[in-house]
Design a protein that fits this description.
This protein is α/β, with parallel strands linked by helices. The protein contains 8 helices and 4 strands; from the N terminus they run H-H-H-H-E-H-H-E-H-E-E-H. The chain has a 4-stranded parallel beta sheet, with helices on both faces. The longest helix has 20 residues. It is elongated. About 20% of the residues are buried.
């Protein structure tokens, strides 16, 4: 149960459902305040993994360096940026480096469409200008964008494939969809 509770506080934020089988719901449970505190500490220990956070920070730094070294960079901002509440930081980065930004359909309101860095929402149903920006990019940093099948017209493997693509997401199953 401790690892299940810890999992509820890591990864993609959202609703968590823990089911207790009917035959156990009525059983009396004996515990002390110390038992509860010990369980809470165990959950905190699992979810606070400084080594993983440092590794993630190093990878993100490397990704940002690759993006900044590109001749035609593109920052693709997905709704995961909003879920992580880092949209202001992403926009500050884009504005500091005059970085063109593309958005997923759920995140397009993160930046005003009138902003000169806003390039739209590329994909299967997009305006041609958004897809042209995507096609011209030589490095694309995809932040919190799952690149769903509707966006990629069921061709995730060729979405921006002329560019060096870097995908940053906290959800390992989402990352696994991209292979290497």
């Amino acid at each position: 149960l401790i690892s299940t509770l810890a999992e509820a506080f890591t990864g993609r934020p959202g609703v968590v459902f823990i089911e207790f089988p009917l035959d156990t719901q009525g059983l009396p449970i004996e515990y002390t305040d110390a038992d509860v505190a010990s369980a809470a500490d165990a959950v905190r220990k699992i979810i606070s993994t400084p080594a993983a956070a440092l590794n993630s920070a190093a990878k993100l730094t490397s990704a940002l360096e690759s993006l900044l070294a590109a001749q035609r960079p593109l920052l693709y901002i997905g709704n995961g940026v909003r879920a992580a509440t880092v949209q202001d930081a992403a926009l500050a980065f884009a504005r500091r480096y005059n970085m063109p930004c593309a958005f997923s359909w759920l995140s397009e309101d993160i930046m005003p469409a009138a902003d000169p860095l806003f390039t739209g929402c590329p994909g299967g149903l997009a305006e041609i200008s958004a897809n042209q920006v995507l096609f011209r990019a030589d490095t694309i940093l995809i932040l919190g964008g799952r690149l769903d099948l509707g966006t990629t017209a069921f061709q995730r493997h060729v979405f921006g494939d002329q560019a060096h693509r870097i995908v940053v997401d906290i959800d390992q199953p989402e990352l696994d969809k991209f292979g290497d």
